[in-house]
Amino acid sequence: MPANIDLIQLETTDDATTVRDRLSFLRGRSVLLVWPEQGTTLTRKLDLVLIQREAVRSAVKLALVTHDPIVARHAAELNISAFETIGGAQRGRWQRGRSKAFTSRNKRPKDQPAVDELAPVASRLRVEDVSPGQRRVRLAVRVVILLVLVIVSAAVGLIVLPTATVVVLTTRIEVDANTLITADPAVASGQIDVENRVIPAVTLRVEVEERAGIETSGVRSLGATPALGSVVFINTTGAPVEIPAGTFVSTSAGTPIIFRTTQAALVAGGVGLQIEVPIEAIPESAGEIGNDIGVGLINTVIGALANTLEVRNLAPTYGGTSRDVRVVTEADRVRLLDILRQQIQARAYAEIVPRISEDQFIIPETIRITEERDDWTIFDAEAEEASESLSLTMRAIVEATAVDPRFAEQIAYVQLSNQIPRGRSIDLNTIEYVRGGDVALDAAGRVTFSMTARGVIASQVDTVLLQERLAGISVEEAQRFLASTLELTQDTPPQITVTPGWLGRMPLLPMRITIVQGDA
Q1: pLDDT tens digits, one per residue of 287-302
Q2: What is the DSSP string of 104-142?
Q3: Residue pLDDT, tens place only, 329-364
Q4: CA–CA separation, 223 vs 76, rounded Å?
Q5: What backbone torsions phi and psi does residue 15 show, to the nearest 5 degrees?
Q6: Spatial CB neighbours of 388, under 8 Å, sequence gap ≥ 6
Q7: Ordered DSSP codes for 453-471
Q8: Which run of H or of E encompasses 418?
Q9: What's the Cα-to-Cα distance from 314 to each of 85, 232, 453, 462, rounded to whole Å?
Q10: Please, are residues 126 and 120 in contact by the beta-carbon 8 Å criterion?
């Protein structure tokens, strides 16, 4: 006995369909169908077969409660448990039903009529008496119908099944258009004048202060100490030779370095006799340049004594010094002013950028200093003042012009479109815009600059029209038509592939023709 039983109380109006629907909601359960006390229902064996099949599909374990002997007999034949009362069903053992409606052939009733006996009442078994002529007519009609069906099928196949792919390579040409565009701050935002090529602009203003310094380039000499040393004068005659103070001697190699004697002397008469005399560098050779003149390099006497005396230094010279200081020049001030102006413009650009929208950009050439004052320009040293470095603190008013490049690109695109010949179209994926480097700025703040638009144009192919014109014609005619109608790349005739290949003609339905446009 099942542990949990679901009861379905049947009404006299119930049929197999309603019971099957109710069983579909009780999948996997044990269900007890209870026949009504008054009247009966589902008396046909077929009804129980259909209900039992639904129970098998839904994994429902099925039993009946009925007093109807016909229903009980059908239930027994189908191996479905039938009880007199609900209590009996709860206590009794439920059989496992089967879904077959009929018994096997070897269990067929003995009194069942033979097939031949049923022929008079079964039309499908009734043999009609048909004459040979009628049979031939019927056969001819069937053959004609079959031929018509074959012809119609073939015609439909020729119309619907063929396909064609047409590949054409059209020419591509790159074109460009250069346009002068004026950005005017007086034009309202969002308003563009395509005909006059004017777009709106925004002038931005900022006050910037910067400081910078450089090393000075001027040099001032504060004097030099001459190098010192001594030379030996050698007499080349037999008579004594007087050497006055201030006699000049020098080196002979490279740029001469000139020295002078600091005291008078007298060389005794006789060839080879000599005397040592102190020397110092003249003012023109003063400083470090006169130091370290090697032994024997001071070897020239300047003046009339050169005919009677020779000279040599027996030791290097020494002691020459120079004193120079760095000073500010006017060129330093101009150079520092230029550097600081560039720094101010760069700083102004960095401060202005956050103030514009994402769709705008600043034209770098329009960043300009519009106001400077003497009291805003402060150097820490004047010209000719001694200093190793020069600093400048400067404040200025800077202005810049910002534009929306999309407006300029619209005007450039219009100019480019005017160059496209009829029957061609531009490939939007190839368009690019380049702003020129020449920028003009007038006193009213209007900026004129150039914008170049370039792109690739190709022949326009009306796919729908081509499909209609090509439908149903031969492949050769289609190739001639395409070659005479489209601007194809040289030496690249249209390629046409028809399926099936033996057809030799384009499909009758335009929609079965695929046009593929390539570029060369």
Answers
A1: 888 898 999 999 999 9
A2: -GGG--TTPPPTGGGTTT-GGGPPP---HHHHHHHHHHH
A3: 999 999 999 999 999 999 999 999 999 888 888 988
A4: 144
A5: -130, 180
A6: 215, 216, 326
A7: EEEEEEE---HHHHHHHHT
A8: none
A9: 155, 7, 83, 106
A10: yes
